[in-house]
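ok so I'm stuck.
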Amino acid sequence: MGDIKGFLKIKRQNGEYRPVCERVKDYRNVCLPREDGCSQEQASRCMDCGTPFCHWACPIANYIPEWNDLVFGGHWEEAARLLFATNSLPEVTGRVCPALCEFSCVLGINDDAVTIRENELAIAEYAFREGLIKPLPPLARSGKRVAVIGSGPAGLSCADQLNKAGHTVTVFERDSKIGGILRFGIPDFKLEKDILDRRIKIWEEEGIEFRPGVNIGVDKDIKKLSKEFDALCLACGCRKPRDLAVEGRELSGIYFAMDYLTQVNRVASGDKIPADEIINAKGKKVLVIGGGDTGSDCVGTACRQQAACVTQIELLPQPSEYRTEDLPWPKYPLVLKTSSSHQEGVERRWSVLTKKFIGESGRVKKLSCAKANLGKEVPGTDFEIEADMVILALGFFAPERKGPIEGLNLELDNRGNVKCGEDFMTSRAGVFSCGDMRRGQSLVVWAIAEGRSAARAIDEYLKCV
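replied:
not stuck anymore, here's the structure
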């Protein structure tokens, strides 16, 4: 390392946000860019430990100590080369990843962990700013054609790697634009869409064909598609939302989180939504059910729509602010997370069980709740929460059956996901799957890892057919 005592001299400096009073008025990124000098200082805190558990915790096995050392030494181009060697979308993970690596940082045992995610983002943005990221089409083509269905992080990463290997890749997407959950599921204040467009343009110049607005299984027969290509990769995500089957669920004013976020992203991109379909929190008492990242995104979106008030409830008890003994280092701990959205105005309540929705004239007006212990109702603790707009952010439980799954009659596992072997191949020869569709609902960084691993398996398959 350039400075073996860097972690003793420099304290962790977290990323800074724009003022709340300013950022809630728009959908631009809430984070302020960090100067290169600050990133170099923060990178000096990396300890060059003998066993880098950050590398072990990262699903894509980033060369974290190596590029931290290079950044500290000012060797940004070499750091970028290492970063992009393992990650197809570091400019995205540097913004939205929960940084599993930081919770396994050796320095984090008795001090604040290295700002790995911010350092990753600094490298990626430096590379784009300095023109280091240029289209590099493969020198030769294999003559093999691969169709990737779905353009979320798994599908894009898979397509990128297959294209680099020389195969001709076409990405099909049923939505009007490429990006999947990155474009329509994550709010602009966390991931502005020009970041995606910048990368997609490079991939197009490298030879990947993108075909948005094509719903495979509806607009185009999946069996015919499988005959046109040498291999298929299904990366359609895990899109069936978990519902809340309680009395009053049929009342209007209750929405799934992804329907809400998707519409807001479409409006932000200029799409026109019929007036009777608009979901708007302005002036409403908004209740978000679900305490995860998606629920947090709904909180931030409702604040920007000028909700009268926002409450977020969670069935589980409030997590500890610190790592507990049952999840020791280097495991990922279930600790309390306070996002930028939570800072913008929300009441958070834990151990709350929703018993029923109460409405007037067919519209939700309040919730009947009770305190919960280990997910079960505590007798005699009933109370109500007023809400004229409810957002269900309870996650997803399975991929949609209609489309490629039914069209190819694919075998599913006991959780309802597409069943694959270790080689990512489904029950149908030449058809592969990756990401949430195969793994179940997970993180963007895991989707990227899945896509890259599936690409390697498909490449090996194509060499033998």
